[in-house]
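Renewal narrative, Specific Aim 1. Our central claim is that a sequence can be written position by position from structural information alone. The example that follows is taken directly from our test logs and has not been curated for this report. It begins with the structure tokens describing the chain, in the order in which they were read.
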């Protein structure tokens, strides 16, 4: 006599996708925690000191990035310009070179995309100012050109980088590198955002007359 065996109920596509998504999310969160723990705190502290010195001198801080890093740059400039006023110190003079879209696109269209940042800097950059680049690859030609101009104008140059640091790691005065495998853009950008918030918190914590 033939024995009937019960079959396991089929796994619905919805349940399969849900399980897969859970794994992807958990893995990404774990990677962010791991990479963030490896960031050199002293490098971020040095960045904060450079911003403090620029603030106290009344120098300008320019921030630039492409793509997702452009959004990080814009967000950071908002925080540096507004939130740090709570410290009671003089306000930071900050400008995001990605925010003036008409000027950015005019330079890119008329002079080449590699001139999108340096073309703006030519109008403002003065000795003692600070240029901050945000780039996962560290190889964006428009950021490299901006740093080259900044060095000629005697600006201090810093960068938030990813992967192996790229060309910018050896060009800027103070690199902060989030070391990952090449192509891990989401991971680098998440950690860059945390670094920006940590640096901003340091500047908010300053008190007039005590720094």
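The sequence written for that structure reads:
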């Amino acid at each position: 006599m033939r024995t009937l065996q019960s079959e396991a109920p089929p796994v619905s596509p919805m349940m399969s996708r849900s399980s897969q998504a859970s794994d992807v999310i958990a893995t990404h969160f774990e990677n962010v925690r791991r990479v963030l723990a490896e960031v050199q705190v002293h490098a971020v502290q040095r960045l904060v000191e450079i911003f403090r010195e620029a603030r106290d001198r009344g120098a300008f801080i320019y921030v630039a990035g492409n793509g997702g890093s452009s959004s990080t740059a814009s967000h950071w400039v908002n925080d540096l310009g507004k939130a740090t006023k709570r410290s009671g110190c003089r306000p930071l003079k900050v400008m995001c070179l990605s925010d003036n879209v008409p000027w950015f696109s005019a330079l890119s269209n008329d002079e080449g995309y590699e001139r999108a940042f340096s073309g703006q800097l030519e109008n403002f950059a003065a000795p003692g100012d600070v240029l901050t680049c945000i780039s996962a690859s560290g190889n964006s030609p428009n950021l490299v050109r901006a740093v080259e101009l900044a060095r000629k104008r005697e600006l201090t140059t810093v960068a938030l980088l990813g992967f192996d640091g790229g060309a910018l790691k050896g060009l800027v005065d103070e690199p902060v590198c989030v070391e990952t495998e090449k192509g891990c853009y989401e991971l680098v950008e998440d950690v860059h955002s945390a670094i920006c918030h940590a640096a901003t918190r340091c500047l908010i914590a300053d008190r007039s007359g005590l720094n």
